[in-house]
Amino acid sequence: MGQLNLCTVGPQDTAFLQYIPACFHPLLDQEGTVCVGAVYNGASCGVALAERYTWGKYYLRYIFVDPKARLCGLGTYLLRGLLGRLQGKGAKWVKAVYDPSMLEGERQILGILERAGLSQPEPISTNFSTRLGDIPELDIPLPPSMAVYSAADAPPEVQEAYIDLLEGKDLPAYADVRGMEGVSAELCSFCAVEGKLSGIFLIGRKADGICLEGLYVLPAFRGGRTAVALISRSIRAGKAILPPETEVWTSAISRESFSLCDKLLRLGSRAKKETEFSCIYQF
After folding, report:
1. N or C, which terminus of the chain has less Cβ within 10 Å?
2. Cα–Cα distance between 95 and 276 in angstroms, integer?
3. Do residues 39 and 69 make contact, with C-beta atoms less than 8 angstroms apart?
4. Same domain as 143, residue 74
5. pLDDT at 87 (0 to 100)
6. Which domain holds residue 84?
7. End residue of a domain, out of 95, 118, 141
8. CB-based burial of residue 146 (10 Å sphere; 0-12 exposed, 13-18 middle, 19+ buried)?
9. Is there a domain that residue 182 lies in?
10. pLDDT at position 201 over 70
11. How many alpha carbons lie under 13 Å from residue 19 in its C-beta half-sphere?
12. Distance CA 100, CA 264 (A)
């Protein structure tokens, strides 16, 4: 009978780096990362990695079992070992967020999560992606009382109204530009009705495309044309400065945003829609 051991994995443990995607290697240098590896008879055979989100809260980022060691409970062993290490660091909960395309051997991975004690998966958002050229332009006339601007060209009073909302913590996370990377002032839009800020549309430029970060209409202006005005201006701006094959993606987290994305981002042969799930372990 062979001997199975659990060990801590760091950035210099080359025997385990073969199991961890390169994009996760920098996490091993961070203080908030916890990574464990399984060793059987002196040979590495799997890893599990978690990243600290805030104090006491962690995300399960990766788990992998060598194909030669699967179907014998090693995945559950790894994950339970990782949870034990996290509990020792004062973790309150650990969350796994995934979509089906991220799972190799979906049933096996979901079984590992369940046997380790994580909750049943629940849908949390739907991810959409398409090409910029496949998104239709919205040509809808606006009333004289309404104006729409890029974030860079909005009048000072409109920009100040947005800053007031940020400072007052009156915005959902997806409408808060602080902390967002690559936000493009040319593509973001502000809408005003009779000179008062009515809505914002935040868009970020990434190396391989653009991300629709968040569309937010102030409660007093919902049911009007603010959302259409924001989307229309940003689409026109994007098509004016970016090639039609530019990838566009976003996540819909409400019924209204799902319906809107389903109409605008499901056109073209490269359009994709995939639901994202999460499950959690609470200590």
Report:
1. N
2. 13
3. no
4. no
5. 96
6. 4-118
7. 118
8. middle
9. yes
10. yes
11. 26
12. 23
Could you report the per-residue pLDDT of 224-244, keeping only the tens digit for each? Answer: 999 999 999 999 999 999 999
Could you give the 3-state DSSP secondary structure of residue 97? strand
- Other CB atoms within a 10 A radius of the CB of residue 197 amount to 22
58 and 91 Cβ atoms separated by less than 8 Å: yes
DSSP 3-state of 9: coil
3-state secondary structure of 242: coil
Using alpha carbons only, how large is the chain's radius of gyration in Å? 23
244: helix, coil or strand? Answer: coil
For residue range 230-281, what is the model confidence (pLDDT) as tens digits? 999 999 999 999 999 999 999 887 788 888 888 888 888 889 988 889 999 9
Same domain membership, residue 151 and residue 81: no
Specify the 3-state DSSP secondary structure of 253: coil
pLDDT at 95: 96
**Tokens standing for residue 123:** 């849908």
* Last residue in a domain, options 118, 148, 172: 118
DSSP-derived secondary structure letter, 28: G
Element (H, E) at 127: strand 122-131
- Asked whether the beta carbons of 210 and 132 are under 8 A apart, the reply is yes
**Cα(266)–Cα(255) distance, integer angstroms:** 16
Q: What is the CATH number of the domain that holds 27?
A: 3.40.630.30
Closest-CA residue to 138 (of 261, 230, 243, 252): 230
Q: How long, in residues, is the chain? A: 283
The pLDDT of residue 48: 95
Same domain, 83 and 149: no
β-bridge partners, 216: 200
Q: Are 97 and 213 in contact (CB under 8 A)?
A: no
